[in-house]
Amino acid sequence: MEKTPLSMRKHIAVLGSTNAGKSTLFNKLLGRDDAIVSDVSGTTTDPVIKAMELIPYGPVALIDTAGLGDTTELGSVRTDKTMKVLNRADLILYVRDINCDNRADKTDINKNTPTIDVFTKCDLISSEKLKKIKAENPGAVFICEGSDDDLIGLKQRMISELKKQERDDGTIIGDLLPRGSNLILVCPIDSEAPKGRLILPQVQLIRDCLDHGMKALVVTPETLGEALTELGRVDLVVTDSQAFKAVNAIVPENINLTSFSMLLARSKGNFAQLREGAEAIDGLTESSKVLMLEGCTHNTSHEDIGRVKIPKLIEKHIGARPRFEYFTGYSLPESFGDYDLIIQCGMCMINKQEVRSRLAAAAEQGVPITNYGIALAKLNGILKRAAELLT
Ligand SMILES: Nc1nc2c(ncn2[C@@H]2O[C@H](COP(=O)(O)OP(=O)(O)O)[C@@H](O)[C@H]2O)c(=O)[nH]1
Ligand code: SF4
Ligand SMILES: [Mg+2]
Fold first, then answer.
1. What residues are in contact with ligand 2 under a 6 Å CB criterion?
2. Which of 8, 105, 158, 386 has a Cα-to-Cα distance from 60 of 20 to 30 A?
3. 4 CA distance to ligand 1 centroid (A)?
4. How close is the Cα of 293 to the center of ligand 3, in Å?
5. Is the separation of the CB atoms in 48 and 34 below 8 Å?
6. Which residues on neighbouring strands pair with residue 49, listed in sequence order?
7. Which residues contact 294 (CB under 8 A, 6 or more apart)?
8. Do domains 6-166 and 269-390 have the same CATH topology?
9. Which residues pair with residue 93 across a beta bridge?
């Protein structure tokens, strides 16, 4: 469980005014001393993210934030960082000091994110007053210092909220093909493949096939032809985007073919929007600006796709080289408005909520957005075939 990647964990953000007791609550939930707790306003600067087991729910990521309504010198920087981290939150714990009237402005937070109101420092007010506030806030959770029961109650609320969401979470392949389907997964084992293991999208798809009663035969491009002949019926071939062209030539027309990154794009966000975004490549010129979003830095083969392969193919496709700008991880430019196209990587290290927030922001600002896999398919002239099953 400790090994569950952050991108696959539900993210829970602890939010509220400075000094409301966020870091104290964060530590209590984690059961250790990770965030700085202090009675000096604005002690927490950058959001702190910790992996934890929410028993009996499972692995989650807990985020301690600097707080809203921060009046210190660095206040606006901190609030900005807090707002950014909220894009990733699947659940917000909105913390308030029960003794304070000056509550942070809740209007800024994403109204679509489920929120639990948590009142802290309930040990500091009279029981009559507490009773009155409880009556006024029926959905809220009340925490008194030293009460384990309050914490257990809060954890139960968190679990029931997360479970509600889980029912809406999509699978990668389970809703596309029936149980019993036969898949061939093409995973090139070349110099770019990590030593001794498969990459996350490949592992995720294998697991999803198993969860949905599908059979997956894992091959390299070299053994694909043999596998196609040996397997009587093949319902879908899924390939690494980089081997798309070679695999496309091997897989007969009557068999569906797509890529890992297209399947992941579909399960993580709005596939139609990403597909449409790829068409904007045709309209790029030398003076266009393309924003490249990379989920992480650790994978040099991906760096090669985003920094070398895609720019080269675009240059060849439009006969000019637009300007490419790169952002990595969760960092983003102030606005998307300056760009003519956004191309993001497979986003396997970025959680679903963040991907959704980016797609929504791009749509709102009228900027087309696509991803590496879809862009590669487009640039190799095989987008139509690869997207057929997914649209
Ligand atoms: N009495 C009492 N004090 C609390 C409680 N929760 C937090 N505090 C205190 O409130 C102050 C601010 O807490 P902190 O967690 O740093 O607030 P943050 O700025 O929201 O992270 C600290 O001195 C805490 O010890 C509580 O439930 N009861
Ligand atoms: S660069 Fe993107 S697709 Fe590649 S491993 Fe990182 S998050 Fe995943
Ligand atoms: Mg704090």
1. 294-296, 299, 302, 345-349
2. 105
3. 31
4. 30
5. yes
6. 63
7. 302, 303, 306, 326, 327, 328, 329, 344, 345
8. yes
9. 14, 116
Rounded CA-CA distance 83/100 in Å is: 22
The pLDDT assigned to 226 comes to 97
Confidence of residue 182 (pLDDT cuts 50, 70, 90): very high
Q: Hey, what CATH topology would domain 269-390 get?
A: Rossmann fold (3.40.50)
Which residue owns the Cα nearest ligand 2 atom 7? 295
CATH of 6-166, one of 3.90.1150.10, 3.40.50.300, 1.10.645.10, 2.40.70.10: 3.40.50.300
Tell me which H or E stretch contains 356. helix 352-364
Q: Residue 162: how many CA atoms within 13 Å on its side-chain side?
A: 25
Bridge partners, residue 323, by sequence: 289
How many Cβ atoms are within 10 Å of 136's Cβ, its own excluded?
8
Which ligand 2 atom sits closest to the C-alpha of 345? 2
61 neighbors 51 (Cβ within 8 angstroms): yes
pLDDT at 74 over 50: yes
CATH code for the domain defined by 182-263: 3.40.50.11420
Is the pTM for the entire model greater than 0.70?
A: no
Closest residue by Cα to residue 391 from 226, 272, 283: 272
Identify whether the C-beta of residue 184 lies closer than 8 Å to the C-beta of residue 234: yes
Mean pLDDT of 248-267: 91
CA atoms of 10 and 222, how far apart (whole Å): 38
Q: Where are the domains of the chain?
A: 6-166, 182-263, 269-390
Distances (CA, A) of 377 to 90, 138, 362: 31, 52, 21
pLDDT of residue 83: 79
Across the beta sheet with 236-239, the strand order is 215-219, 182-186, 236-239, 256-259
The pair of structure tokens assigned to 164 is 């509600």
